[in-house]
Amino acid sequence: MRIATSLGQREPLYRTAAGKAILSRLPSDMAEELLERTVFEKMTEHTLCSAQAVQKELDSIRKNGYAVDNEELETGLVCVGTALIDSSGIPVGGISVSGPVTRMTPEYRQKIAKDLVSYALEIQEKL
């Protein structure tokens, strides 16, 4: 599989795993305001296309500590991501791992998520 994203490419927060993880760690009013101002664009049949749909998913992301982009940006591509939080509790970035849907089984996503959360904690200690 060849993905169409490239280094430095920008995407709206709502359609990437790292972006949704960052949104989940923002103060609720700030995340809500950002989503209300967002113009949603449907990239695939799985893209979340409303502030309400994204808000609903943010609750789960907060609970789990990571987010999943389940073919929301590109058909056939699954991504698992988590936010990087600075010492004041503000998200300053994110890390993620992507792969084809055929390899990114639910079990493998869980393993990746566990590793990403662990790596994020290591990185955050250095921020």
Verbal overview:
Helix 1 crosses helix 3 (51-64). Strand 1 (67-70) and strand 2 form a beta hairpin. The protein is built from 4 helices and 3 strands; from the N terminus they run H-H-H-E-E-E-H. It is α+β, with helices and mostly antiparallel strands and 127 residues long. A 3-stranded antiparallel beta sheet has the order 1-2-3. The protein is globular, with a radius of gyration of 14 Å. It starts with 16 loop residues before the first helix and ends with a helix.
Which regions have little confidence, pLDDT < 50, spanning 5+ residues? none
Computed Rg: 14 Å
Secondary-structure-derived class: alpha+beta
Number of helices: 4
Report the count of strand segments.
Answer: 3
* Share of residues in helices: 40-55%
So what's the oligomer here? Answer: single chain
Mean pLDDT: 92
Q: Report the span from N to C terminus.
A: 35 Å
Strand content: 15-25%
| Strand and helix order | HHHEEEH
Q: Looking across the biggest beta sheet, what order are the strands in?
A: 1-2-3
Could you describe the largest sheet, including whether it forms a barrel?
Answer: 3 strands, antiparallel
Shape: globular
Keywords:
single chain, 127 residues, alpha+beta, 42% helix, globular
Brief rundown of the structure:
By secondary structure, the chain is α+β, with helices and mostly antiparallel strands. It has helices at 17-25, 28-37, 51-64, 106-125; strands at residues 67-70, 77-85, 91-100.
Q: Topology of this protein?
A:
Elements: H1 17-25, H2 28-37, H3 51-64, E1 67-70, E2 77-85, E3 91-100, H4 106-125
Antiparallel strand pairs: 1-2, 2-3
